[in-house]
Amino acid sequence: MRRPEELTVLVVDDDPDVTLFLGSVLEDAGFRVATAGGGLEALERLRRGPLPDLISLDLVMPGHSGIRVLHDLRKHPEWSRIPVIVVSGHSREPEVRRGLDEVLADSALSGPSLYLEKPVTADSYVEAVCRVLEVDRAAESPGAGDADRLRSEVAALISGAGPDALEAALQALRAGPRRADGR
């Protein structure tokens, strides 16, 4: 089995919050992470190297969509071997689905290894990455499961919080950790 710290995941999403969330989740699980804010930036990262072990790809992005990135990946001999996980909130939209079906219909092109519908939980995302990369979850860095559990709990609380609670949480996070004596 492979170990997370030996593997790099390229996270491609035009939403900086999503990129930060997914990247942080993977780093907490012990993976090395590279990010790209869009399709063209992702292709440039691949050109510069080193190649990632997996690509996490949003489908709907301005400029160069995830569908176009999939086409580009599959045309390049080295890049075509990189497994791809599609993480998108738009994979059921007719236009997006048509583009994805075209990629999958081309017998010379293999499709993504896995599809995840946004919003994803930290745990389901790490589990999917580990499954595709054949990583033993037990081999993850100590405390990774705790971080996933805590992230999921925070996400659930945030989704129901009002503006005042969100502002207070943000101020607390900016203040940093406090010691047991309140300082």
Describe the structure.
This protein is α/β, with parallel strands linked by helices. The chain has a single domain, classed as Rossmann fold (3-Layer(aba) Sandwich). 47% of the residues lie in helices and 13% in strands. It contains seven helices and five strands, in the order E-H-E-H-E-H-E-H-E-H-H-H. The protein has helices spanning 16-28, 39-48, 66-75, 94-105, 122-133, 144-159, 163-175, and strands at 8-12, 32-36, 54-57, 84-88, 114-117. A five-stranded parallel sheet has the order 2-1-3-4-5. Helix 3 links the parallel strand 3 and strand 4. Helix 1 packs across helix 5 (122-133).
CATH homologous superfamily title: Response regulator
Structural class: alpha/beta
Major sheet details: 5 strands, parallel
Main sheet strand line-up: 2-1-3-4-5
Mean pLDDT: 80
Overall structural domain count: 1
CATH architectural label? 3-Layer(aba) Sandwich
Helix content: 40-55%
Encode the helix/strand succession as letters: EHEHEHEHEHHH
Q: Quote the beta fraction.
A: 5-15%
Secondary structure: number of strands: 5
Radius of gyration: 18 Å
Question: What is the name of the CATH topology?
Answer: Rossmann fold
